[in-house]
Each structure stands twice: as C-alpha cells, then as structure tokens.
Amino acid sequence: MSILSQALWITALGMGLVFAALILLAGLMSLMTRMFRERVPSPVSTDSTHPSPDRERGEKARAAAIAVAVALAEQEQVTARPITPPQPIIVGAWQLGMRTRQMTQKGEMKRRG
Amino acid sequence: MSILSQALWITALGMGLVFAALILLAGLMSLMTRMFRERVPSPVSTDSTHPSPDRERGEKARAAAIAVAVALAEQEQVTARPITPPQPIIVGAWQLGMRTRQMTQKGEMKRRG
Amino acid sequence: MSILSQALWITALGMGLVFAALILLAGLMSLMTRMFRERVPSPVSTDSTHPSPDRERGEKARAAAIAVAVALAEQEQVTARPITPPQPIIVGAWQLGMRTRQMTQKGEMKRRG
Amino acid sequence: MNLPEWLSTIFGGPTFTWAHALMLLIGGALIYLAVAKEYEPVLLLPIGFGCILANLGMSAYAEESFMRVIYKAGIETELFPLLVFIGVGAMIDFRPLLAQPSLALLGAAGQFGIFGTLLLAAALGFPLNEAASIGVIGAIDGPTAIFVTTKLAPHLLGPIAVAAYSYMSLVPIIQPPIMRLLTTRRERQIRMDYAPRPVSRVTAVAFPIVVTVIISLIAPSAAPLIAALMLGNLLREAGVVDRLSKAAQNEIINIATLFLGLAIGATMTADKFLYDPASGIQWQTLMVLGLGLLAFVVDTITGLLFGKFMALVTGGKVNPLIGACGISAFPMAGRLSAKMALEEDPDNFILMHAMGANTAGQLGSVIAGGVLLAVVAGMM
Amino acid sequence: MNLPEWLSTIFGGPTFTWAHALMLLIGGALIYLAVAKEYEPVLLLPIGFGCILANLGMSAYAEESFMRVIYKAGIETELFPLLVFIGVGAMIDFRPLLAQPSLALLGAAGQFGIFGTLLLAAALGFPLNEAASIGVIGAIDGPTAIFVTTKLAPHLLGPIAVAAYSYMSLVPIIQPPIMRLLTTRRERQIRMDYAPRPVSRVTAVAFPIVVTVIISLIAPSAAPLIAALMLGNLLREAGVVDRLSKAAQNEIINIATLFLGLAIGATMTADKFLYDPASGIQWQTLMVLGLGLLAFVVDTITGLLFGKFMALVTGGKVNPLIGACGISAFPMAGRLSAKMALEEDPDNFILMHAMGANTAGQLGSVIAGGVLLAVVAGMM
Amino acid sequence: MNLPEWLSTIFGGPTFTWAHALMLLIGGALIYLAVAKEYEPVLLLPIGFGCILANLGMSAYAEESFMRVIYKAGIETELFPLLVFIGVGAMIDFRPLLAQPSLALLGAAGQFGIFGTLLLAAALGFPLNEAASIGVIGAIDGPTAIFVTTKLAPHLLGPIAVAAYSYMSLVPIIQPPIMRLLTTRRERQIRMDYAPRPVSRVTAVAFPIVVTVIISLIAPSAAPLIAALMLGNLLREAGVVDRLSKAAQNEIINIATLFLGLAIGATMTADKFLYDPASGIQWQTLMVLGLGLLAFVVDTITGLLFGKFMALVTGGKVNPLIGACGISAFPMAGRLSAKMALEEDPDNFILMHAMGANTAGQLGSVIAGGVLLAVVAGMM
Ligand code: NA
Ligand code: NA
Ligand code: NA
After folding, report:
1. Which of C105, D171, D199, F299 could form a disulfide with D332 if both were Cys (CB 3.0 to 4.6 A apart)?
2. DSSP for residue B40
3. Looking at the 3D structure of chain B, how many domains does it have?
C-alpha cells in the first residue's frame, strides 16, 4: 500500500470510529439522564417545549441570568485562561436549583475541612 | 516446626513485644510529663482528684464544653472523614488554656506567612 | 602544580570571573532600566539628586514609610524565616506607585481564579 | 501490511471476559460505597476507579501502563503510605494520651486480632506471609496494612487494602453490638476522673522524637512507619514550621492519598482478585475479606476485655468502653466510645480518655505491624 | 594538568552558534506572547523558558541536565499530560452536554482536521508517524497532542506543543472570519430551544465512569487520556472528596503544567527545531506550524458544515455556530460561539448549547487522539 | 529454622554504638536550635530528624531505606535544591538592585570567603574537591552549597549543609561585632541618596531571562542554579501566571524543603560525621564547621572592606555597612545592615540599598558556586 492510501484508510477508519464512539456516548447519555432522574420532582418539566405562561417567566429569568453569564464570560476572555474555566458562571441559572443540595453539602465540608 | 506452631510462636512473641513496647512508652510518657512541666504554674493542679468548690466550677464548665465537643463530633460522624480529624474540637476545653501561648504564636505566623 | 598553587590559581580565576560576571550584569541592568522605561512619565524624576521642595516632601513621606517597614522587618527578625521574605514590606513606599497597575491586575486574577 | 492484519491489530485488543466485567462492577460498588455511603471516600473512590482501570488494560502489572509507573514510584518504594502517615501525624494530637499514659496499654490490647487472625489463617492453610498480611487488617489502619502487605504479600494488596479501609468505615456499625454484648450497663456508666497532667510544649515536641528512637530500636521493621507518623507530629508540635506542617496536612497527604488509592486499585485485576484461568476462582479473596472482618471483631473483643480488666484492677475507675478504641481506626473509634457512654448517661464525658486510648491504638497498630514484619520475616 | 589545558577545559564550553542565538529569540518570543498577549501563559511561558534553557546546554537530550531528569520523569512516562488532564477533568462540567446528548455529534465532526491534515502531510512526504503527530494538532487540545506525539514522534514535541497551545489561544482571531464566511446571517440568528433534561447527581457521577469504560473498550490507546480526564471529573462530581478535587485543580495541575511546559521547551534544541549541521535547515518545523494551522481551520470548517447539516435536518432548530465549538479548545471556542450569536441578535442566548458542544469536542479530541494512535501504530 | 536462630534474626538488628547515640543527640540539638532558637527551622528541623533516622538504620546509604529513595530522587538528581530555588526566585524582588545597578559589585566582593577558605583548607591538607565544598559554605546560601557539594564531595553534605544553614541563622550574632570593628561610627552614619531609577515591568520581566542567558554562557556550571532562581523570578514578575508563581512559593518549595532537609540529614551517619571504625574520629567534621565559620567571617570582612572602598571612591556617598549584605544570607543580612544604620542615626534609612546589595549577594553566591564548580572540576 502506498503511504497515501494508508493515510486514506486511516482517515476513513479513524473518522468512522470517532463518530461511532460519540454516537454511542450520545445514546448512553440519553439513556442515563432518563434512567437516573432526581427523585424530587423537578419544577422544570422536561418534555414540554411549548412553554406555559409560568414556565415562560422562568425562561426569561433564566435568559437574563445567562445574559449576565455571557457578559462575564466575555470579560474573562480578555485574559483567556482555559485551564481555569469559570464553571460556576457557565453552570448558570438553570442548574442552580438542581445542584443546591449538593453544593450545600460541599459548602459544609469546606467550612469544616 | 509446623506452620501452626510457628504461628503460635509469632503470636506469643508478637503480642509480648507490642505490650513491652507500649508499657515502655507509657513509662517514658509518664516520665516526660513529670520532667518537662510548663514553667508557668498551671491553674489546674495535677495531683488533687478531690475537687475544691472552685475547681469544681471549672470542671463543670469544662464538662459543658466537652458536651458541645461531643455533640459536634457526633454530627461529624455522619460524614466520617478520618483523614481530617477535627482536632480543634477534640482538643476541647481542657487544653484550651495550656495551648493558648502556642496557638497565639501560630496564629501570628499565619497572619504573617 | 602543588595543591596550594592550584588553589591560588582557582582563587584568582574564580574571583576574577565572579567580578567580571557581576560587572557585566551591572552594565546590562543599567542598560535595561534606561532602555525599557515605563511609558507613563514617572512622577519621581530619576536624574535629580538635589531634591526640590516638593520632591523633599515626598522623600520624607517615603522615609516614614520605610521607617515603618524597617520596624516591621525588625519585628519579623525575631522569628527569622528567610524562605518567606516579606517582600510586600520591603518593596515599601517607593515602588507602590509603579506597581499599582500590575498589582491591580494580579488582584483581579486572585478574585477570579 | 495488508488490511485484514491491520484491522486485527487495531481491534484485537486485550481480552475482556466476564471476570473483567464483574471486576468493573466491584470497582463501581466501591465507588458507590464511597459516594453514597461515604465510607472512607478519599480512599475507596480512588481504589474503585483504579480497580476499573486495572480491568481495562491499565493494571499495575501491565507493561507501559501509567498505573504501573505510579505503582512503582509509590508502592514498591513504599513512599505513598509513608507520605500519608506524615500527613496523619501532623493531624494527630497526642496530648490526651500524654496526659494519661496508662491508657497506652489499651493500644496494645487492641492488636490481638492481628495475631489471632494470623493463627486462624495459618490453620486454614495460608502460608505465613499471606497469613500475616491478612492478620494486619486487624491493625485497622490503612497505611500500616499496605506497608506490611507490600513487603510480605504484594499480590494481596487489593483485597487487604479494601478490607482495611472498608472496615475502618464500618466502625459505627460493627463495634456497637459487640460493645453492648461484652459490657454491662453499669460498666458503660462508669465515669472517669478527669485529672490529666498538664502537657508542656517541651513534652509535646520531645514525644515524637522519643517514640521514633525507642520504637526504631525495639522494632526496626516498624521504623519507617513510626518515623513518618512522628515526623508529621513533630512538624505539628514544633510550632515554628507552619509551612511544612500545612504542606503535610494538605498537599502531601492529598496527592499521596489519591495515587495510593489508584495504585492499590490497579492491583485488583480479575485474575488476582476473582478468577485466574490457571488456578480457577480466587476464593482467597473472599477469605481475606472474611478473616479481616474477624480480625476487626477480635481486636474489639480483646480491647474491651482488657478495658474490663483495667476497670477491675483500678476498682472501677476505668470505663471499659474505651478499650474498644485501642484498635486504632483513628478517630472514629474514639468518638464512638464517647458517644456510647453518653447514650447511657448524658452526663458521662469520656471523650478525652477515649481519644487517648485511640491514639494509643494508632501507635500500637504501627508497632504491631513492625513487630509482625520482623517476626514473620525472621521465620520465613 | 597544566594551566592552558585547565583554562581550555573551563572555557571550552558547549558551542554556541547563530542557530542557538536564534532559538533564544524564539524562546523569548514565546515568553513575549505569554506575558504581553496572554496567549496561554501558563504553558507558553514555561515552554519559552525551557526553550531558552535547551539552547544553553540544558536540553532534554543533554546528559546530566536537570531538564532531562524532568523530561524522563514526566514526558517519557507520559505522566505530566495525564496529571494535567486530571486537573482539567476536575474543572469541566459535563452537565450541558448530558442535558442535550445530541450535541455529542458535533464533537466528532470537529475532528476531521486531524485526519485531513494527516492526509496532506502524508502527501507532502512526511512518514506516517510524523504525519499523524502533525494532524493531532487538530485536536486543539494540548495534553492530547503531547500524549500522542510522545508515542509517535517525540522529536517533534516542541513545534507540535507550541502549535497546539498557540492556536488554542488564537481561537478568537482565527475562528470568527471562517464562521462569518460559512454561515448566513439568518443561520447565525437561529435561536435554540432551551429545554434541557434535568441531570441528576447519579447521572453526573456515573457519566465519567461509563465514558471511561466505553472508550477504553473501543479505543484502548485513548484509555489513559480518557481515564485521567474522567478521574478528575469523578472527583469533582462525587461531592465527597473535596480535598482530592481541590488537589487536582490546584497542586497537581499547577505543578504538572509548569514542568510539562519546561520539559517540552527543553526539547526545542536548535538542531531539532531550526538547523541541524548534518541535514541543514529544519524546514519541517515551519511545515508543522503551517499544517497545524490548517488542521485548525479544517476542524472549524467541518464543524460548521456539520452544524449546518444539523440545522437542515432539524428544520432550523440548531444554530450552526455551535458547530465551531466541536473542535475542543475548551472553553474558549464555546464562549466565542455564544458571543457571535449575541452579536447578531442581543437576545440569542446559546451559551449552554455551545458549552455542550464544546465539552463534546473535548471528548471527541481525546477519542480521536486515541483512535489515531491505534490505527497509525497498527499500520506501521 | 529453629527458635534460637529465629530470635537472633529478629533481635540481631543493626549495631547501635555510642557514636550512634551521640549522633542522636546531635540530631536532637539541631531540632532544639530549630524549635527553641528558631534557627532556620524549616531546614534544621528536617535535617535534625533526618540525622536521627540515619543513625537508626534509615540512612541515605542503607539499602531498602525510604530515605535512600528520597535521596536518590532529589539529591542525586539535584532536583531538590533547584526546586527550592524556583520558590526562592518567586519570592525575591530584584527591583532594588535593578534601580541601583552599581550595588552589584558588592555581591562579588562578598564571595571572597569562599576562595579564601578554599585556600586555607587546601593548605590544611584537604583535597581540592573537599576544600572547594568547604569553601562554598561561604556562599552563605543553602541550595548553592548543597548543589556544589553534591557534585564535588557528597560525603560532606551533612556538615556542609548544617554549617550553611546554621550560620545563615547566625547573621544577627556573627556580623554585628565585625561590622562595628571594621567601620567607624562616622561611616555607619553615612546617609545614602535615595534616587533609584524607575524599573519598568518590561525590565523586571526581561531581567531574569537576560541573567539566565548571560550567566549560563559565562559559567555553564552555574546554569541550573541560576536558571531555577530566575525561572521562579520570571513566574513572579510575569504577572500572568499567578497560579504557577503561587505553586512555586508554596507547594513546590515546601515539599522540596521538607525532603531536602530529611535527605541531607539522612547522610549524617555516625561513621561519616563522627567516628569511622576504620579511620577513627572524623575530625574533618569539626574542621568543616570551623572553616565554614571562617568563610562567613571572611565574606563579611571583604564585603565591608569593599563597601569602604566604594565609600572612598564615591566621596562618601556609600555607607560601608551595606557591604556586609553582599554575602547573600538573603534577606537577613540586608535587614541587619539597615537596622545597624538606624541604630547609629534613627533617621538613616538604607534599607533599599541594603536589599539591593543583598540580592546582588544572592546572585553573586550562585555565580561563585558555578564558577567554583567549573574551575575545580577543570583542575581535578
Ligand atoms: Na489496630
Ligand atoms: Na479537537
Ligand atoms: Na555568598
């Protein structure tokens, strides 16, 4: 085999495997989020994409929070330091509720530790 | 020698040595605490086990402090993390006085360091 | 060569090289401070050694600041810990102005990081 | 190279059998215990993850595995358990023990499980080195167990470390029934005089040095362990090397703990832990776990019995509950004893005595580990 | 020994040629980019300084050089990139991806640059191992590039690491024109529904374990990288090992980053990078840098095209801009996409989708790196 | 194996003689100096403890000793002193020196003690390598002394490191009488103009790079030391790698210091330090300590004389006291000079000048160490 046809084979198989792996992961992620739901009923229902009035208000609040997050993210970009992604900001409004329990727990540890 | 009689010898000699070592250490500890006394006269006299009225009051205060310590220790047990024993709590009331000098010193360092 | 004459040669060449290296460094330092000036005109002019009245007032303020620094340095000496030189104190009054920009920058990082 | 060969090179990876799959579940179970039950999470989580890696081709025995690099750097050299001990030493306060030296005896009594289990394991047919390694689970002290096992029977590191750390977490579950069974309500209500000797700074600083010298002379095999523990304690008590003391309690112990756990987990390959195609199912793993539990129980029993003996000898001045802290498992065992005394009588505060006995147990465990190494190595 | 001999021993040091002088300038330029332009300073500054040392007799190849000690300890063993990944994993939040799993596909599309560049490099006459190492710059992920290059073509470590990290910093400069060119204004204005599935703690904890197992089975060569990344993420999400998570995000990553950078820089000797007296000018360095840039551009293009394809398939529910985050370059690429959407329409918030695609790109890069290692090693 | 044999195996440990006992006392004395007198506690405490371990069977020379593992990892590779220097560099501010470059000369004058002592030691019959190692105590800089001694005469590491660090702590005791003896009250009252050149950020960043290049070319043997020191300083002054700068000033230096001290202490075995059964009492230890003290005194004297010379040349614009800071012993010597000037005249503030001379002394010590290595190695 010439080096170029080797390279072509590598490309074909390589991209194939990469796509296969990520499609598999996507399926597993989908499965996992369905399987392991938070027991506490989440206030945000997951299947409705047509927001109710109530829902919409929350949506807007969240949007506003994200706007702030983006603004902050932009500021950060000036001194882009990818090694310390400001996760708390990215997490933003949406996960705030979900993670409260966990963070409270962590907070306690920090106070103690 | 059969393996079992070997094991018996190991047990006898082993436990003997462990006891011997700890008895020796107990003696040395006793000697050391006698030899190296704090120069500042300790407010808590060491030989009286029959508390004077004054002494008793201190005793109760200390007991109360320890009660708090135990309560806290119990709480901690929920997330038992033996690698970070909350020493300050264990040390409790009793050594508080004794170690004040040392801790002040350490505190200063922290502020400076 | 006897060991002693070897040692004499080592001493001569050694001290010569040490002096040569440090003289060279002194020259380079002199060159660098001249070449790379802060673009913002420094309030302290560098060539006048005869203080103007205004200058003198600043000088006194600085002297006072240094006095404080020395006093603090002395205190520190009690628990001399050369591995953590209290640089912020040594830097003292004089560089305070120059480094403000840089420190502000650092401060921001700390708040974010 | 032709295509079929190429494809077989790529996809013909390491074999993955049902045994490997089961080991992944075991690794997952350890992580579950760590995360959901908070059983010693700083160790069981890395061990669990290391176990998963070990069975995906990244074991401590695989050539060119990065886990092997870590294993060789920190387990074979024995540095990791020693580094952990430097940190532990910097976190222990020996003053409760120094103030009540007689409690040291309880730290000896709580080690009988080590030797009792060795006896039983030898009777069950384990060779001496394995029997001793199983017995050392009875030290109820992770670094000691790992240090001794690395020298005597490194192939058992996985189950022994898992047992040592799991049982340490199970103190509040395993010990109370034994304590209630072996002590009367009256004994548990014994109040202890609270008249400790004052401990000067000189004593606190001299103590770790003296212990290092004495124990190194009596039991040279325990020397590295005791030296590491006491170095940490010296850094703490010196009061002038705050930087080093903090480094020991944070950077050093955290990094060493993470990689210690990973490397231990990386020894838990399917063939060593579960099923060896050559020799069949590894029943010894289950036996190690079972015998280890026994060692724990025996430790607690002999500790309590010695506590009762001290109560008898002193004419009822010692609460036998503190005998159960002599096993080590610092500091959970100490807290548990104090709590049980409080449950019987809400005014009965024996926490200081319990912590004294518990630190004595920590010393006793290290000494017993060293003694065990010496006597067994001498016998082999 | 007589005097003239002695003096010649002392002053007849390593030769210092114009090529070495030029390398000092290159090292200085890297430090300049780090300090003045803040291009990935935590890596380019140590690389630049290491480059200077390499050309003053302290290279990774010099006997008795302390840089060689560091190189052997952390690059040859591959520990440094893995340690960095443990820290990176502890800093990444995969929830945006878990909540929108279909974004994972974008993380695959953004890796085409790797293979496209490999093809071109092979066509230009590079041997397969070098071509693959050059292609892996297209992972736009430093530790992956270093890990793969260490195994395939360690002599190219310098230029490849420099390219990987420089281009990562250039995301805000290189990507926007391509994004504007390949997408219509209308496409950039597409708003995305914001209805993520809730992600439970169980999912967040199970995710890193599942990914480690799956990827290690599919692409064993990627196993160490993915294991390190996922170990860090597990420490983060477990919520019970705060000490270890912080150690990963601080001590471990800081120390590993510093020495990784130094050791990489220490491979940039004049003869490897610039001019080899035996073989003349090292044009390959320039070609590596050029081809690496191309890999970046191709990644961005294929990512965007796949984004457009997803927009088409979903009937306009996906904003193609998030295709550009599939390249990795975490987290700059994600932020940039969100920003560009905002610029077209100040009410268009796609940050969560962009970060999901960006973390998918991080996974995709590691997987692609592992796949590349496997298929190329199998071919050679 | 029969019982008597077994018992003799267990109890027939390493011999413990009066010399070992005396070494334990010496180790204890070092710890006493560290704890009670606070003489460089972060180093003398670990050295003292290491010395105790060395004489309990855990020396750097004992097979299977964990101290040997540490010694080989950090001393033989020379990494520990270099890591300490990275941290020291990150803590030094060279601005006072940059603002007054002429002070650099004082940093050269303060190194004469090194060579003067080498001469005397050679005259006393020490071979060149030992004489040079003894002389380097006159660098009054721990890492430099350890680095040079490791290369020239590693068997003298113990006494030389102890001397280097003890004398560093004794600056406030040893220097004042010499300073009073050699300077007149009038000289000590000289006020120094306070007109430093402004130091821009560019200069502060370029300085460590320029110094690394220049010194590495002039004295390649000093290159690793100067490179480590300047790397730390670059991390500090860059202002964009705060994480790395903090890691250097904390994790890296703390861990390296602890293990450096332990490993140095672990070389202090009775036979090397006190009494070798083969060759008798090791008088050389006392001579090393004595000659080291002399080196210190000579450094101070030549520094002061050069200060007086500069006072003469400048027509009384230089206070000769700052000559005493050229010895290094950073930052105590600088503080002491400023304090002595204040004692003579409470309005005489020369702290900035003293710190400039002191940092020059730090540079001079490293350079002198490198030059010494080169010239002595060339001669041998
Ligand atoms: Na025990
Ligand atoms: Na990529
Ligand atoms: Na000096």
Report:
1. D171
2. S
3. 1
